Structures are given as structure tokens and as C-alpha cells.
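WARN no homologs supplied; continuing
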Amino acid sequence: MTTVNLTEQDFARTIQDNEIVLVDFWASWCGPCRMFAPTYEAASAQHPEIVFAKVDTEAERALAAAADIRSIPTLMAFREGVLVFSQPGALPAAGLEQVIAAVQDLDMEQVHAQAGAPSGQA
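OK structure emitted
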């Protein structure tokens, strides 16, 4: 599967309608973003069960601001509509595979329980 470009209009629907979504926040002028792109594309081909999405922070400034993006590239992972991972910086292929495996292995009952717990009671 190739990566899909997300906009403010389809971001929330994509997160909600798919079990696992990885989102790469990037910009064309960003050297580390350009270095990470082939690694991200290769992982998307290896994991067709996952939606690999990209958000161009220059074209989608409001979306980047809403996601509190302060550094690019930033990788976010959503599972069952819940943000379960967010980290700035380009990952090597092995690091990206570790993130994918960790997201796939999450106990989502526990994640949902913690997400629904009042602050400080997880």
C-alpha cells in the first residue's frame, strides 16, 4: 500500500475508520523529512493492513497546529481512534518496525480503560 495524503477535511474520518493509522507530519523543505520518506514508504509496502498517511505541514497549517506539531518530521500512531504514539524525529527502518510492532501488540482494552479514567487514576 502506498501512503495517503491527509487534509484537515479527512483526518478525523481516516483515524476513526481504520484500526491502525500512522501519520507522518512533514514538509518539503525539511531534510530529515525527505530522508525518512523512503523508509516510511517501504514500511507501508510491508504492512498493507495499516494506513500510512502523510500531512504536509505547509499545506495543512491548521491541522499541524491542532496536532500540536512543534518539530518535523513527527510520527503519530493511532489505534482504534486513540493516539498511542507521538514522537518527533526521523526513525531508522528498525525503529519504525519497533513502533509498528508495539502499536500492533497494545492491549486496547487497557488503553481504552486508561483513556476513559479520570486524570491521575490510570
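Residues 115 and 122 are 8 Å apart (CA to CA).
OK
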